[in-house]
Amino acid sequence: MRFIATTITLFLMIAGSMQLSHAQTYQITGQVTGEKENAIKQARIFLAPGRDDSSSYKEKQFTTNATKTTFTDSQGTYKIQDIKPGSYTITAFYTGKKITSRTVQVENQDVRLNFKLTILAEELEEITVNASGEQTFGVTRLNAVEGVTINDAKKNEVVLVDDLTANLATNNSRQVYSKVPGLNIWESDAAGVQLGIGGRGLSPNRSSNFNTRQNGYDIAADALGYPESYYTPPTQAIERIKIIRGAASLQYGTQFGGLLNFVFKKGPRSRPFEFNSEQTVGSFGLFSSFNSIGGKKGKVRYYGFYQYKQSNGWRPNSDLDQHAAYGSVQYQVTPKLSISPEYTHMQYLAQQPGGLTDTEFDQNPRQSNRERNWFRVNWNLFALTADYKFSSKTRLNTRFFGLKARREALGNLGRIDRADFGGNRDLLKDDYNNWGNETRLIHRYPFLDNISVFLIGTRLYNGFTHRRQGDGNDGSGPDFNYLNPDNLEGSNFDLPSSNQSVFIENIFNITPKLSITPGIRFEHINTEAQGYYRNIVKDLAGNVLVDDRIQEERQKDRSFLFYGLGVSYKESNQFEIYANYSQNYRAINFNDIRVDVGSLKVDPNISDEHGYNADFGIRGQQSQLLNYDISLFHLSYEDRIGTILKTEPNPNFNNLVDRTVRYRTNIADAKIYGFESFAELDLYQFFTNSSTDTQLSIFSNLALTTGTYSKSQENGVEGNRVELVPKLNLKTGLTFAQKNFKASYQFSYVSEQYSDASNARRTPSAIEGIIPAYYVVDFSVQYSINRFHLESGINNLTNNHYFTRRATGYPGPGIIPSTARSFYLTIGITL
């Protein structure tokens, strides 16, 4: 027994000695200065396992597997504590300076290591920090310069998709864009096939008020003639979503909403092959299979995916069948030149349950009165990108892109308060054939002891839409054939459009903290319409009284110049004050003029819209503790196009009595003001004052907006509230994360809003009227282990019945109810 006791005592003494030895830690301290020995505060310091020493990094993408991070104080000093003996790499980063790295050996004493950062002539596109125990907020902002784009002083957000805990299989917009202030979201597509987001009083209809792009090139039907997007990339394939508000007009074109750019994932750099598969099942017959491959071998980097999705929908007559595929290859021809071809295909067939009247919605929002309405889309996108670096200061990028696509809508377009008793259905077909090129040259040059940036670009674009409308058969299935293809009952038009533009922006870095960014854009736009429409008048018995085939040719050619100015003051790398003013312009399109959708009439003298966006705000991020962006905006929208109710003689009664029609015209000037804010705080770090692998964050996304009409030539419009402007738009929630587990809770509230300029609260057709206030609760969880990950959640947890949209045509007309409570489960594997 004495021997055993002695042995145990000796073992405990040795173990204690070993524990004391391992517990011995040291610290690394130092100072970060600039070229003139000035202290740099808020420079970020990374500590990672040791590797070969390198004085600086100039790669396009900087990646570090950091185990600890910190920031310098007002004196430029930093301190990293609790470091065990070993070899480490210390890296210093500050925006606009070269990333500098040193390797140190920590043995039996503390280490002091100073850094001198010099001006960086080439801005890094990405900085990826794989920090152990470091969580991100899921949203960030663009660097002042990224690639061949200038973003300085612009109101912008970047959604980091991999950091989201959300229903990605259905592209749940309410969750994906939860941290983007002020977005108004239409939820008329539960399966996530089409995205409908707008903001600041702009219609969310197929995101048509944004310049919608994928990897930097157009994906909408016709950027000028018909800027609606029937294709939305699968969120599971997206790495980042870039949103730049109205100031994007100078670089990307004339849309009032700004830029919406989906940036796809790329194959991993570190391995030649990777396979990822995610299988999702959910409520109402949802099944989604997403599968992707990617990798890098030698000079070739590639990525591709295939997705299949089907759903029965919450309401009857809501079946969906969708296929989507994508492939890209990046080939590094020389160290300076890379080329990348891309191809995207998407097709789907959807049955559309139609709209409801207010009474029907109150009685049973799940009902459907249309079983013969169908929608079919076939989308093909092509792109070829070439990127050439003349030097670290000068870079040229050119993108060729094209679209060959079709959409077909079949069904009963009559008022929803009238039953569908059968008969021939309305069939509308569009064919889109577009191509374009956008070329940019960016150059960095010294100015006032700082590096300024000059950007010049050109855009050439040709769009062509062939639009037809006539009678389809009287069946109930998806038969997209005309009964009289040679003499359509509606219209047959060719709608070509063209655009040539030149744009210039320049960042003048007056001091290391203050920058001024002026910009100017010249546009030449031509839109045309060539074809015929039928003017058919029938009596009450359905007999044809008048049947005229009217040939029509229209052309509108215009050139104009618009400009903008941005100012940014960065007190530190973590705090910025910014302001921006940019003019906007939106061309009319002839697509809507000769399309018969019931009682809608279009003013033949309708004209283009113009105005400006102005933003002023503060934004920043304090380590991983706090992220915020608070701003004020003003959107001036002159000659705004909208719809009002008018009375006119009824030709079906020999013009002896009047009828009420919906009239589309330039109704008035709209003045929209607002406050937009986002803030997220890590409560765990705030209360414990420590950074660990545990995160408990709370976020608030609040927008307060008001808009009124002025200078109207139409009766009953001046002084009205602008439609689609909820006074209060709030999203808030909690996220808990620990190691491989993450859970999120989200609450959304949107106050009431009008659906048209007349401010009608309710009409028999249900096209006009109020959109009542509503709230929605979502909950999602995810867990990862080794190569597997599991995701699940409940959308609309409280099972609320609400709607966000009153449709004027497809997929209505009338109220389009949003989906009630639904569940989803995703199982994924990476090999």
From TrEMBL:
Residues 160-255 form the TonB-dependent receptor plug domain. Keywords: Cell outer membrane, Membrane, Receptor, Signal, TonB box, Transmembrane, Transmembrane beta strand, Transport. Belongs to the TonB-dependent receptor family. It comes from Fodinibius salsisoli. Its main location: membrane. Residues 1-23 form the signal peptide. It is found in: Cell outer membrane. This is TonB-dependent receptor. InterPro entries: Beta-barrel_TonB (IPR000531), Beta-barrel_TonB_sf (IPR036942), Carb-bd-like_fold (IPR013784), Plug_dom (IPR012910), Plug_dom_sf (IPR037066), TonB-dep_rcpt-like (IPR039426). The keyword Signal applies. PROSITE patterns: TONB_DEPENDENT_REC_3. Transmembrane segments: none annotated. PANTHER family: FE(3+) DICITRATE TRANSPORT PROTEIN FECA (PTHR30442:SF0), IRON III DICITRATE TRANSPORT PROTEIN FECA (PTHR30442). The keyword Transport applies. Residues 354-797 form the TonB-dependent receptor-like beta-barrel domain. It comes from the Bacteria.
